[in-house]
Amino acid sequence: MVRRSTWAVFLAAGALIAVSQGAVSETAPRHTGAAAEPARAPAPTTTATTTPHIARHLAMHTNHIRLTDDDTDYIGPEKCSDYYGEYTARTVPNAFGGRNPLAVCGYTPAQLRYAYGVTQSHDRGKGVTVAIVDAYASPTMLSDANHYAMNHDERLLSPGQYREVVPPSYNHLTDGECEAPASWAVEEALDVEAVHAMAPEANIVYVAAASCDDTDLMAALQTVVDDHLATIVSDSWGGIPHSVYGDEDPATMAAYSALFQRGGQDGISFLFATGDCGAADPTAQCGTGSARPQTQYPAQDPWVTAVGGTSLAIGPYGRYVGEAGWGDRRSELAPSGGSWSPSAGTGQWRFGGGGGTSEDVPQPSYQAGVVPLGLSTTLLTGQHTLEPMRVLPDVAMDADPMTGFMTGVTEKLPNGKIGYAESAIGGTSLATPLYAGLVADAEQAAGHPFGFLNPALYALAGSRAFHDVTATSLGYDAPRYGTPPAQVVDLGADGKGAHQARLYQMGDDGLLSAGVGFDDVTGLGSPSQSYLRSWD
After folding, report:
1. DSSP, residue by residue, 416-450
2. CA nearest 60: which of 281, 253, 228, 268?
């Protein structure tokens, strides 16, 4: 019997929280570029010619996507798999030469811990504190996290293990500059529950910014650094530095970078999501408002660890099967029910892990000799630079909503009522807190904080600490040799009785390519079961 997804158990299908992976308005997205390079402190300029823009502030956005994408009548599919490849889709047309797996209902904490080697290590983040910085604050966060933990037989957040630092008031609640607090609440729940999943004994401090504005987010980060609230900071937000409305203020970028540098030298690791729109290509649906293909900020800053995305295949009993670089194309079940539209292999590109070569940040010394020269000197626009530039991401973890994380949050449901529900959520907003939890486990194992991570990470390049992730390294894949991996989201019948389903072709990240060695989709790769042991 194919299991219905968990949302159906707790409260019927709910409304899709606004996906915020790239839409830019005149008052919205903002970004922060880059500043000094760790070793040589070169000026944050590129030798390639770019179109001048007026410097201005743009708003930061979250980087999470629901499994049901923009199908707003659903919080989860009607049918799904508990693990990758458990069931195939039998009531929809074949694609890529045969039947395709039903999408994962949403991985549980136990599955993710085993797949990434946490269970085997026995490290749980004890004695380590992770800070999570987002805009606004959910009034039900602690109760949601413990409700979720009870539902999945997980350790509850004990008294004193979770706390919040919130401002006296909030800004930009109604002027359209920021995503609604409800969307940030979903982000907060994803971040808190993902960190707790990977590091069940770590302390978590949630630091709320007064809004998505640079000034407010920087103030929250400043609080973490000044009060040394944590040794790891998970940040699942960012923006494009070059929009059609102007460029991010260089002074703001420099201020961010100086803060990251000071924190890193003081034993604090900053982790940032690379975004969910691949190269932020303006021709892609999620790239609206982007001036040109580019990397996200603050992820491109040389003093932070940029976390990209993968599609993760977990088999029975939590077994790691494989990972592919995250990038999905979507086709919909035609009204006749007998074909896919567009046809399989030609679907619309929807989303994928952010990455690429920065036009703003020169190559940090830790990337020299690891990042291929052809990659570091070729911008996402195709222009070439005289000197190498910073390339994102540094590392990657599960982010594909097709292989997402079951998340619990109190929110508005389709019937208009407010209630707790669970659904699968992905995005580099998932990968970042997953990695934050893993770093917390590593800090416990090492017995000390790491501070700025990247030099040590790049020293592990090519070692067994990382899976070398390619576009199709999902183990038994589609499972047909020579065809791209794909999954089906079966939504069942809509209100008019019509069957609704989506086919997602995986492993295509647009202008970015996952391949052997360092690449601009997964960086050094994803942490293997040897990763935690490498820090002992």
Report:
1. S-EEEEEEEEESHHHHHHHHHHHHHHHHHHHTS--
2. 253
Burial 477-501 (b: 16+ CB within 10 A, else e): bbeeeebbbbbbbbbeeeeeeeebb
Alpha helices in 127-237 (DSSP H): 141-151, 181-198, 214-226
CA distances from 120 to 280, 419, 491 (A): 38, 36, 36
Pick 98 or 54 by higher pLDDT.
98
d(CA 339, CA 344): 9
Helices (H), 447-489: 454-459
Residues 92, 79 contacting (CB under 8 angstroms): no
**pTM, entire model:** 0.90
With contact defined as beta carbons under 8 Å apart, do 257 and 303 qualify? yes
> Which residue type is seen at 25?
S
Please tell me the predicted confidence (pLDDT) of residue 463: 96
Instruction: Share the mean pLDDT of the chain.
Output: 88
Q: 59 - beta bridge partners?
A: 29
Which pLDDT tens digit goes with each residue over 379-410?
999 999 999 999 999 999 999 999 999 999 99
CA dihedral over 416, 419, 423, 426, signed as positive or negative: positive
What letter does residue 245 receive in the DSSP assignment? T
Cβ neighbours of 36 (radius 10 Å): 20
Closest to 522 measured CA to CA, from 401, 363, 399: 399
Helices (H) and strands (E) in the chain, counts: 10, 25
Radius of gyration, CA atoms only, the chain: 21
Hunting for tokens 């049901």 — which residue is that?
68
3-state DSSP call for residue 270?
strand
Which neighbouring-strand residues pair with 470?
Answer: 324
pLDDT at residue 12 is higher than 50 = no
What is each CA distance from 326 to 105, 182, 378, 512, in whole angstroms? 17, 26, 21, 10
- How many residues are given for the chain? 536
Cα torsion angle, 66, 69, 70, 73, sign: negative
Tell me whether strands 246-248 and 55-56 are parallel, antiparallel or unpaired.
parallel
Give the model confidence (pLDDT) of 40-92 as tens digits. Answer: 323 333 334 444 445 555 678 998 898 888 887 888 899 999 999 999 999 99
- Tell me the two tokens of residue 53: 């823009």
Task: Give the tokens for residue 265.
Answer: 């030298």
Question: What is the reported pLDDT for 55?
Answer: 54
Q: How far apart are CA 77 and CA 142, in angstroms?
A: 27
Is 423's pLDDT higher than 70?
Answer: yes
Q: Which residues contact 383 (CB under 8 A, 6 or more apart)?
A: 48, 49, 50
**Predicted confidence (pLDDT) per residue in 148-171, tens digit:** 999 999 999 988 999 999 999 999
3-state secondary structure of 434: helix
Q: In 48-85, which positions are buried (b, 16+ CB within 10 angstroms) versus exposed (e)?
A: bebeeeeeebbbbbbbbbbbbbebbebbbbbbbbbbbb
3-state secondary structure of 340: strand
Q: Please report, as a single letter, which amino acid is at residue 167.
A: P
Match 């000390």 to its residue by tokens.
448
